[in-house]
Amino acid sequence: MGIAVLGSAVGLASSASYLAKLAEYGKNQLMRKLASLLLPLARTLATATIRGVLVSSALVIGYAVASWAAVILSIGLWFFSDDGLQEWCKRCVFSKEDNPDYYDDYADETGAFYQALQDVN
Q1: Collapsing DSSP states into helix, strand and coil, what is residue 81?
Q2: Torsions phi, psi for 48 (to 5 deg)
């Protein structure tokens, strides 16, 4: 039912100029009276439709900008942040860091290595 009402509203809104001509030059009194009654509603619906289109266009543009910003932010985070394997490499015995934070023992290092491999996959 909602789509039928919306279709009727759009049809009535788009016929505002036709209703104005019909209210002025209609063939009989009933047609002129009906057209003059529907004309204010058609003009109001036309104005509301234009506002709705402008608002929805602004929302679509805003959504597109936000989506692109999210994509760029995700790529930046992916590019500049370390994954689990890079973090493990910084702390393992083969680290080339100046002051590495080595693992306490072999078991911790091996467990962190396996976890890093799972995080990368």
Answers
A1: coil
A2: -65, -35
